[in-house]
Amino acid sequence: MLCIVIALLPQPVRAAVVGVVTVAEGESHLIRGSGYFKLEKGIDLEEGDVIHTKDAATVQAEMRDGSIFEVGPASEFYINEYRLRDDRSVESAAVSLVKGWLRFVAAKLRPSRRYEINLSVATIGIRGTEGVVSVDADSSSLLLNQGEVEFIEVNQAGELGVAGLVQPGEFIRRDRGKPFSKHRTASKSFLAKMPGRFKTRPKRYKSTLLRRGVKPKFVRAASRKDVERILRSNPRVGKKLKATFGGGARDIDQKRGGEPSSKKKQSPQKRGAAKHKRKSSGSKK
């Protein structure tokens, strides 16, 4: 498996800023803490954030170390961990593409430091590289444009398996339950489905941002469905995700002061019948 959450309005403890949204085209959202927010340019990103794009939407995140992540349409991208040194270089970082498309441009690392992208049936160890990955529930693919990466198989329990080295221009794919296959060029189906934006050179937009530190606009509480979908897709980071989301978000109805949907409310008639039954059983004793 490739190895990337209630109060009246959720206001999680402020974490260190690790990046900023520089492109937000189409409808996209940010899951942070137990809240679901509208995503816009200028919003700062933190460890534990999840970017969720709808069809035809694209988001670009530019990180403090100089790395770029472009999240394609109908995709979900999770910032598991992003530890920076005082000079803004990466000490250790891990992100996950839960589903969809991602283009990455990773800053160069020193040999002792770690940077990985987790996918559904594999994980990629990167170091000053550029490439495009695609993920669904049962397969993960990588087209490497620059640099060199290690592509490592991951099983459903999150355990690492066979590793392979990928060189510039090479394409590698793994389907669940099968060994990976490496090719000199990307498959026609991969290239046909790749977002058009990913076929041109990546650009940086941070210097042109009109605003920084934009406050995300609250949409709703993160539902149990949001959390469980991400947890199912990330076997290697399950514990961290559960801690991030506080063991799982409550259902949306609780934001309105209601009960969780798993606890159905009784109608007044049923409550009255139950009360009468308790009185009757008590009088018989």
Indicate the proportion of strand residues.
35-45%
Mean pLDDT: 81
Number of E-type strands: 18
Task: Enumerate the spans where pLDDT stays under 50 for 5 or more consecutive residues.
Answer: 1-13, 247-265
Rg computed from alpha carbons, rounded to a whole number of angstroms? 22 Å
Q: Which structural class is indicated by helix and strand composition?
A: mainly beta
Q: So how many helices?
A: 4
The CATH topology of the domain at 17-208 is given as Jelly Rolls
Instruction: Report on the biggest sheet.
Output: 18 strands, mixed
Give the % helix: 10-25%
Produce a short descriptive summary.
The chain is mostly beta strands and 285 residues long.
Itemize the secondary structure elements and their pairings:
Blueprint: E1 17-25, E2 28-32, E3 35-38, E4 44-46, E5 50-53, E6 58-63, E7 68-71, E8 76-84, E9 90-105, E10 114-118, E11 122-125, E12 130-136, E13 139-146, E14 149-154, E15 160-166, E16 171-175, E17 181-183, H1 188-193, E18 217-221, H2 224-233, H3 238-244, H4 268-283
Parallel strand pairs: 9-10
Antiparallel strand pairs: 1-4, 1-6, 2-3, 2-5, 3-18, 5-8, 6-7, 7-9, 8-9, 9-12, 10-11, 11-14, 12-13, 13-16, 14-15, 16-17
Walk me through this protein's architecture.
The chain is mainly β and 285 residues long. The protein has a domain at 17-208: Sandwich (Jelly Rolls), CATH 2.60.120.1440. It has helices at 188-193, 224-233, 238-244, 268-283, and strands spanning 17-25, 28-32, 35-38, 44-46, 50-53, 58-63, 68-71, 76-84, 90-105, 114-118, 122-125, 130-136, 139-146, 149-154, 160-166, 171-175, 181-183, 217-221. It has an 18-stranded mixed sheet that branches.
